[in-house]
Amino acid sequence: MIETERLYLRPMKIEELELYSQDYKLFCEKFSIKQKHKEIEPFMDKVFRIKINNIQSDRENWLYYTYFLIIYKATNTECGLIGFKGNKDLKGFTEVGYGIDNAYRKMGLMTEALCGFCAYFIENKYLTGIKAEVKKDNLASIKTLEKSGFSRESETEDFYQYLRI
């Protein structure tokens, strides 16, 4: 588990990913997390299935495929998810993805989570660096990346690519 000033970032094992995506209420009860109203959208259900399949195929590197639950210490409530989009490449880089619930936005929590997450994996030499891709119109995520030590490296028509070393 990764801990920051206001957050816990807790990696979910394969069984936890399955339970989270299938029965969020039971997941919260099992792990003593305050439940919030939440329905898993079809897109996210598909993402969870992909993550579970990837872990089953490469159990040794499960931390690169799972989600980390972002838990707000003050209320013991899940406020978002963060994780990698796959195992590191030969140069030691992988891409991060994240999201925070609307009720927890504009509090600096996603920046805090991203900083803690990246620092843990880079400082402990698990990774050389971390990449991120963001839509050009996603100003909140651009701000989060830049406040978290990411530098803009390149762009396409619709996206910016960022890197943190």
Walk me through this protein's architecture:
By secondary structure, the chain is an alpha+beta fold. Helix content is 34%, strand content 28%. It is built from five helices and eight strands, in the order E-E-H-H-H-E-E-E-H-E-H-E-E. Strands 1-2-3-4-5-6-8-7 form an eight-stranded mixed sheet, with helices on one face. Helix 1 crosses helix 2 and helix 1 packs antiparallel against helix 3 (42-57). The longest helix is centred in the first third of the chain and has 16 residues, at 42-57. The model has no long low-confidence stretch (mean pLDDT 94).
Strand portion: 25-35%
How many β-strand runs? 8
Shape estimate: globular
How far apart lie the N and C ends? 22 Å
SSE order = EEHHHEEEHEHEE
Low-confidence blocks of residues? none
Mean pLDDT: 94
Structural class assignment:
alpha+beta
Largest sheet: 8 strands, mixed
The percent of residues in helical segments reads 25-40%
Which strands sit side by side, in order, in the main sheet? 1-2-3-4-5-6-8-7
Work out the radius of gyration. 15 Å
Q: Please, how many helices? A: 5
Keywords, please?
8-stranded mixed sheet; 5 helices; 165 residues
Question: How would you sum up this structure in a few lines?
Answer:
The chain has helices at residues 14-22, 24-30, 42-57, 109-123, 139-147, and strands at residues 2-3, 7-11, 67-72, 77-84, 93-100, 129-135, 151-155, 159-164.
Q: What topology does this entry show?
A:
Layout: E1 2-3, E2 7-11, H1 14-22, H2 24-30, H3 42-57, E3 67-72, E4 77-84, E5 93-100, H4 109-123, E6 129-135, H5 139-147, E7 151-155, E8 159-164
Parallel strand pairs: 5-6
Antiparallel strand pairs: 1-2, 2-3, 3-4, 4-5, 6-8, 7-8
